[in-house]
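Reopening this one. Same input as before:
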Amino acid sequence: MMEKELAEAVKMAQRANKEVEKLRNRLMSETEKAVRQGKQQLAAARKRQSAANARLKKARASLRAKPTSENRKKVDELLAQAKKMAETTGEIARALADMVERWVPMRTDAMIESRKAAAANRAAEMVEKAAARQAKSKKKAAPKKKPAAKKKAAPKKKAAAKKKAAPRKKAAPKKKAAPKQ
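Same output, byte for byte:
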């Protein structure tokens, strides 16, 4: 019964991990997309700013050559436009830097978590294999409880024929004790 509950818990944990992984991947893809768009916007803003600066430079050169009120108005308008472009470019750059600051730690955390999850999965697989081996060995050990068929005793070698013992010599007659006086 416990094995079924354990298997069910493992499946539930795997499903939960998959959902978390999906959400993390979606968040990462949205963040990466936002960073890409921010980079594109920043590049476009810088391009517009450099074009505005080039127009301003030409207008100033024409103002030096011909100091008229029309040229003065044009320079003032282009100056205001260039300032606005510079501010916009700065704001986009700061926003992009903030996104990148948030994105890089999220990305590293996601990489670390994925590696931890992979290691945990490998460890769980090893534990499951070990548990399966133990269960298998226990199943094999159960039939061994029956008494094993007794082996027939190896045939005994015939004892070598006994030699007759050599006849014993009679003990030498004891000397009579010397007469006491």
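So the earlier flakiness isn't reproducible anymore. For the record, The radius of gyration is 50 Å.
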